[in-house]
UniProtKB/TrEMBL annotation:
One of its GO terms (molecular function) is calcium-dependent phospholipid binding. Residues 1-20 are annotated as: Disordered. This is Copine-8. Residues 20-147, 156-279 form the C2 domain. It comes from Oriolus oriolus (Eurasian golden oriole).
């Protein structure tokens, strides 16, 4: 929890994992193995609610539900307070939620007129509801979403306004430096080789390692280098949570000798260098055995500096738009679309692999694009009427305006293209990468960022040209996601990904890593649960986007624009004619 405040509802299950991704408390979520990107606070207001009370106005409450991935079951997340006698409530109690760019978090806000003290909602009058995603709120201008309340046929139920605010402490990092004095001597021939290990405490009393310092050789009075750690990793945003620090003597064989330990908290450390931040290092075993034992040395905090990092959400709130472009592989190796063995098979009952990849990624990204118009391209096909081969054609048949409305429009254009073009070859990526790069090159001020999704069945034919295109694009505000479908070997794609070796072309290296490749077959759920497959796929391919986005902004020194002021309806002044 944050400081002393108690938010409405419980937190989502914690995220778990080893160093350097820190674990937090709660159930392990099958989809998650990272610390939350950040926490956001949702504020809810309504205007013109239905009036259900005879002698006075309604007494509204808002109940928030979240939807479990996979089974679509709605679970209550929390409730606001009840506000008496109003149709225009501004609820004080907030909802604090974990926010992940790469996950689609479906939300449902239900409104009731409270008639008694009963916690049972069926005992109160239903005033309507609103459905949205967390991304939709965050991606709206100023992170402020206004939508009509629905759910009572034939009635106007009013509107709801939900505002998202990123919690500041999630973005703070601290730069700390420690030294020690008179540590116990552990080595037979020399002095000790000390290092520190930091652990944050979890709510169940266990500890999670969150930082190790370097080893300082052969001294009992070491001064360690300053290190930077996020406040979230150090104490999960809880300033009073225990931080345990262990002191070890390093041994080459890995059997490091325990010198002693001490505990502190973020609040104590934040006092900076002072008498409060000199800690006795205690070895409990020695303390139990020796009556005259005082300590095994002391550790002193030398400096403590808080740094606030700008976040992905700062840019989104400041109005940066994410433009999403789709490119689909129409080469003959996919197989005849009328045959069930084809990767492009149009099954009337379920999405093919291409459709699943498009929908999984598109449904999340579309929340960050205000006009919801997406260019959709194809490559590797012969086009009517003359059968010319194209590596950059508009799926909607309009080269001047390749935009489709929403992800549904993209799917429709994709199915229409399958009926009109002839699958051919070869598999060339460079033309579609260069297509998006031309747009990205025209807006380098941080107001727009471009994401290209390429869905392909395989072996790339223009490797040298594609590498050149990626190296050039790495200087631009864009990222490339490649999803490989089908059974092919995707070794070349791994090379483009650049996670292991930074991609280069003709001796020039990419300025930043902008490509993320995943094979779709790794995400097929054995139980046939396509919702889960798509959620897993989206999570993995989108997880790197915020960091790629921030790396571009940092290198270019682009700061987020200030968020627009909250909307206030204009006041109409009546002018009298003379």
């Amino acid at each position: 929890m944050f400081g002393l405040e108690k938010p409405a509802g419980q937190q989502k299950p914690g995220r778990s994992g080893g160093l350097p991704k820190m674990a937090s408390v709660g159930d392990f979520n099958v989809l998650s193995s990272s610390i939350p990107a950040t926490k956001v606070e949702l504020s809810v207001s309504c205007r013109n609610l239905l009036d259900r009370d005879t002698f006075s106005k309604s007494d509204p409450i808002c109940v928030l539900y979240t939807q479990a991935i996979g089974n679509k079951e709605w679970r209550e997340f929390g409730r606001t307070e009840v506000i008496d006698n109003t149709l225009n409530p501004d609820f004080v109690r907030k909802f604090i939620m974990d926010y992940f760019f790469e996950e689609r978090e479906n939300l449902r806000f239900d409104f009731y007129d409270v008639d008694s003290k009963s916690p049972n909602l069926s005992k109160h009058d239903f005033l309507g509801q609103m459905f949205c995603t967390l991304g939709e709120i965050v991606g709206s201008q100023g992170s402020r979403l206004e939508k009509p309340i629905v759910g009572i046929p034939g009635k106007k139920c009013g509107t709801v306004i939900v505002t998202a605010e990123e919690l500041g402490c999630c973005r703070d990092s601290v730069l700390m430096q420690f030294c020690a004095n008179k540590l116990d001597k552990k080595d037979f021939f020399g002095k000790s080789d000390p290092f520190l290990v930091f652990h944050r405490s979890n709510e169940d009393g266990s500890f999670t390692i969150c930082h190790k310092t370097e080893v300082v050789k052969n001294t009992l009075n070491p001064v360690w280098q300053a290190f930077k750690i996020s406040v979230r990793a150090l104490c999960n945003g809880d300033y009073d949570r225990t931080i345990k620090v262990e002191v070890y003597d390093w041994d080459r064989d890995g059997s490091h000798d325990f010198i002693g330990e001490f505990t502190t908290s973020y609040r104590e450390l934040s006092r900076g260098q002072s008498q409060f931040n000199v800690y006795e290092v205690i070895n409990p075993k020695k303390k139990g055995k020796k009556k005259k034992y005082v300590n095994s040395g002391t550790v002193t905090l030398l400096s403590f500096l808080i740094e606030t990092e700008v976040s992905f959400l700062d840019y989104i709130k400041g109005g940066t738009q994410i433009n999403f472009t789709v490119a689909i592989d129409f080469t003959a190796s996919n197989g005849n679309p009328s045959q069930p063995t084809s990767l492009h098979y149009m099954n009337p009952y379920q999405l093919n692999a291409y459709g699943m990849a498009l929908r999984a990624v598109g449904e999340i990204i579309q929340d960050y694009d205000s006009d919801k118009m997406f260019p959709a391209l194809g490559f590797g096909a012969r086009l009517p009427p003359d059968g010319r081969v194209s590596h950059e054609f508009a799926l909607n048949g309009n080269p001047q305006n390749p935009y489709c409305h929403g992800i549904d429009g993209v799917m429709e254009a994709y199915y229409r293209s399958l009926k009109s073009v002839q699958l051919y070859g070869p598999t060339n990526f460079a033309p579609v990468i260069n297509h998006v790069a031309r747009y990205a090159a025209s807006v380098k001020d941080g107001s727009q960022y471009f994401v290209l999704l390429i869905v392909t069945d395989g072996v790339i034919s223009d490797m040298a040209q594609t590498k050149e295109s990626i190296v050039n694009a790495s200087k631009l505000p864009m990222s490339i996601i490649i999803v490989g479908v089908g059974p092919a070997e995707f070794d070349a794609m791994e090379e483009l990904d650049g996670d292991v070796v930074r991609i280069s072309s003709r001796g020039r290296f990419a300025e930043r890593d902008i490509v993320q490749f995943v094979p779709f077959r790794d995400y097929i759920d054995r139980s046939g649960n396509h919702v889960l497959s798509m959620a897993r796929l989206a999570k993995d391919v989108l997880a790197e986007i915020p960091e790629q986005f921030l790396s571009y902004m940092r290198v270019r020194g682009i700061k987020p624009s200030p968020a627009p002021p909250p909307y206030t309806p204009p006041i109409h002044v009546l002018q009298t004619q003379i």
